[in-house]
Amino acid sequence: MRRREFIAALGGATACPHVLLAAQPMPLIGFLSSRSPEDSAPHLAGFLRGLKAFGYVDGQTVSIAYRWAMGHYDRLPDLANELVSLHPAVIAAPGGTPSARAAKQATTSIPVLFVTTDAVQNGLVASLNRPDGNVTGVDIMSGGLAGKRLELVTQLVPAADPVALLINPNGAGADSQKADFELAAHTMGRRSITVSAGSDDDLDRSFSSLVKTKIAALVVENDPFFDSRRDHLIALSQQHSIPAIYHIREFPAAGGLMSFGSSLVNAYYQMGIAAGRILKGARIEDLPVVRPTQFELVINLRTAKRLGLTVPPALIAIADEVIE
């Protein structure tokens, strides 16, 4: 009798496999970002698309605990510790080096995935091909592009006027960004200045000083704080009629003049792919850091016209996207 009852129960479970699946808890992913959810919406969609490729859908087959620092880097260590206390299977820590560093310092056992630039130089991994410890991710290789961005934007402005770089003094790599920019400006024979901003008030003051200096163009460096203040930066550039170039297409798509860099949406997608692989059993030490294979130039012709600028046909010809 007991044998027949056991076989009947087994047969019922086979006929209704969802009963067994429902008993299995969904894996948990911690998501730590130095940015804001509003600014990160298109990039988060890329991350979720990467997870979905492995059958993981937020709220259905996986649970994601989000923590957003909203550009306030000092909040990241506490937010990272909160996520670690939840014992997630993996922590996705996009939003640059500040997020990744906070997650790395909070745990040495939970796999951590980043989206940042200059991962080796900033001490996140020992090697791109063979990252050690519990950290890997996507290196968008944007930190050394200040010179290229300066070269592109100066094709639109007079050669006699100075050019400027905007950096976040609280961000990783600010010194190297400044050095790269100054070398490029010197090579091009351009006078240059660097201004810093780590808060909203700093942004307003920096732009006021740029207006007094009568700069010809501005290079806004890659930094999560600037990403989280995208609309404010674009508004300041338009208010003061300052031609500015940024690192991702989301800026010219929102009304900025131009951008040059790798696709951040694709970087988040690759991070989602890595998270899916880990949830399927891959070891993080077997996942090398992913690097972009191409960079994109995006130009907003409407904004150029509003600023009274003529975009050379040669520049339009090499652009990956032209917003008209």
Number of domains: 2
Biggest sheet, open or closed, and with what strands and sense? 7 strands, mixed
What's the order of the H and E elements?
Answer: HHEHEHEHEEHEHEHEHHEHEHEHHE
Estimate percent helicity.
40-55%
User: In what order do the strands lie side by side in the largest sheet?
Assistant: 7-6-8-9-10-11-12
Residue-averaged pLDDT: 90
Q: Say how many strands there are.
A: 12
CATH top level of the largest domain is Alpha Beta
- Briefly note the CATH topology name of the largest domain: Rossmann fold
In CATH, the architecture of the largest domain is 3-Layer(aba) Sandwich
Alpha-carbon Rg, integer: 23 Å
Q: Low-confidence segments, ≥5 residues, pLDDT <50?
A: 1-23
What gross morphology would you assign? elongated
As a percent range, the share of strand residues is: 15-25%
State the distance separating the first and last CA atoms. 78 Å
| Helix count, DSSP H or I runs of 4 or more residues | 14
Q: What structural class do you assign from the helix and strand content?
A: alpha/beta
Helix and strand arrangement:
Layout: H1 2-15, H2 17-22, E1 28-33, H3 41-52, E2 63-68, H4 76-85, E3 90-93, H5 97-106, E4 112-116, E5 135-139, H6 146-153, E6 163-167, H7 174-188, E7 192-196, H8 200-213, E8 217-220, H9 224-228, H10 230-239, E9 244-246, H11 250-253, E10 258-261, H12 264-279, E11 296-300, H13 301-306, H14 313-318, E12 321-323
Parallel strand pairs: 1-2, 1-3, 3-4, 4-5, 6-7, 6-8, 8-9, 9-10, 11-12
Antiparallel strand pairs: 10-11
Helix pairs in contact: 3-12, 4-5, 6-7
